[in-house]
């Protein structure tokens, strides 16, 4: 089966965007082994689809993702030997790596609970747009595990700071959408009934941007997490010089000079009545 024709969740492409919809609403979109594998394969495959310029991850029903399915994952884990457990945890981390490595901006549209692995997936996205019903629960210590799971101990301090990250990962307490926005974990909070519309707006804006510029921005944000200032400055000098040689840079100048909307190379047509972001 093609990674872009998954069986365990829904995927569609529309107007330059890819949309992943976790589709187990009666289980609050709990993850199974198959969902983990297919999510990872789909995100990796997106690197070969330049026509997809932005990606969203959302959950069907009243929850984003409640983490690993208790019956289909947690139960089997208790019977696994040490090599089997390590193979599983490496697979879960591979998913986070795939989200971060995808050249497209990834937006998590969070409604209801994002718990455990669900919170980790939302955290790994580049942007998080949340409904007022959203809540994040990094509950790993609540079930006897380390808060350092699926990249959380690496990513969360960089998003909200070490002190807040220590609090959330050590205590495992629920964080409301309003708290998440205050901490810097949520980029935007909207009423539940407006989440789909707001997510659509963010995807359209990202898809209308320069594909190369967006990809290089994401790559720089990833790489410079572990660079010193001098190395980061050199990396950015090289990246920007490459972008200056791309037709999108010429388009940016021409659109400004001609006082017209931007039309970057390969970007989708804007919806009726909308210009550039």
Features of this protein?
globular; 2 domains; 277 residues; single chain; three-stranded mixed sheet; six-stranded mixed sheet; 47% helix; 2-enoyl-CoA Hydratase, Chain A, domain 1; 9 strands
- Main sheet overview: 6 strands, mixed
The outline comes out as globular
Written as H for each helix and E for each strand, in order along the chain, the element string is EEHEHHEEHEEHHEHEHHHH
| Spatial strand arrangement across the major sheet | 1-2-3-4-6-9
Task: Report the helical percentage.
Answer: 40-55%
Number of domains: 2
Q: Per CATH, which architecture of the largest domain? A: Alpha-Beta Complex
CATH superfamily of the largest domain: 2-enoyl-CoA Hydratase, Chain A, domain 1
CATH secondary-structure class of the largest domain = Alpha Beta
How many strand segments?
Answer: 9
Number of helices: 11
Question: Which consecutive residue ranges, at least 5 long each, have pLDDT under 50?
Answer: none
Query: Per DSSP, what share of the residues sits in E-state strands of 2 or more residues?
Result: 5-15%
- Integer-rounded radius of gyration: 19 Å
CATH overall fold name of the largest domain: 2-enoyl-CoA Hydratase, Chain A, domain 1
Mean residue pLDDT? 93
Q: Give the distance, in angstroms, between the N- and C-terminal Cα atoms.
A: 37 Å
Instruction: Please state the structural category.
Output: alpha/beta
């Amino acid at each position: 089966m093609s990674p872009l024709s998954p069986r365990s969740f829904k995927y569609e492409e529309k107007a330059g965007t890819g949309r992943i919809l976790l589709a187990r609403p009666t289980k609050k979109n709990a993850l199974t082994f198959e969902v983990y594998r297919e999510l990872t394969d789909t995100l990796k495959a997106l690197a070969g689809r330049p026509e997809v310029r932005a990606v969203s991850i959302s959950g069907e029903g009243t929850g984003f993702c409640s983490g690993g399915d208790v019956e289909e994952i947690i139960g089997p884990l208790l019977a696994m030997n040490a090599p089997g457990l390590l193979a599983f945890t490496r697979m879960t981390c591979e998913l986070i790596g795939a989200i971060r490595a995808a050249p497209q901006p990834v937006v998590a549209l969070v409604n209801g609970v994002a718990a455990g692995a669900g919170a980790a997936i939302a955290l790994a996205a580049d942007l998080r747009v949340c409904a007022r019903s959203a809540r994040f629960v990094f509950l790993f210590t609540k079930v006897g595990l380390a808060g350092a799971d699926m990249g959380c101990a690496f990513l969360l301090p960089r998003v909200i700071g070490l002190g807040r990250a220590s609090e959330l990962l050590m205590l495992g307490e629920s964080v409301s959408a309003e708290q998440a926005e205050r901490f810097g974990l949520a980029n935007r909070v909207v009423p539940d009934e407006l989440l789909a519309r707001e997510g659509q707006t963010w995807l359209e804006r990202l898809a209308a941007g320069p594909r190369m510029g967006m990809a290089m921005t994401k790559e720089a944000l990833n790489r410079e997490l572990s660079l010193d200032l001098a190395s980061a400055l050199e990396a950015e000098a090289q990246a920007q010089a490459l972008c200056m040689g791309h037709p999108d840079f010429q388009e940016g100048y021409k659109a400004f000079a001609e006082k017209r909307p931007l039309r970057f190379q390969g970007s989708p047509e804007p919806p009726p009545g909308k210009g550039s972001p």
